[in-house]
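pls design
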């Protein structure tokens, strides 16, 4: 499975795609990768919508805390 096909938003964020790939390469269970991918994709979409850098974001920057 190509992770960026399942979660296209991860393809726009190199570090996110790399992080998911590492967990996949470590042999984590498919459901674990799916849960991580869904959560990460949701976070990245929120960051894009709010105009926040996902790498430097903190609770003070989010309207959803």
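designed seq:
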């Amino acid at each position: 499975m190509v992770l960026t096909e399942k979660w296209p938003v991860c393809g726009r964020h190199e570090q996110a795609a790399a992080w998911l790939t590492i967990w996949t390469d470590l042999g984590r269970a498919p459901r674990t990768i799916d849960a991580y991918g869904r959560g990460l994709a949701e976070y990245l979409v929120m960051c894009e919508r709010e105009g926040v850098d996902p790498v430097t974001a903190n609770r003070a920057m989010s309207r959803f805390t």
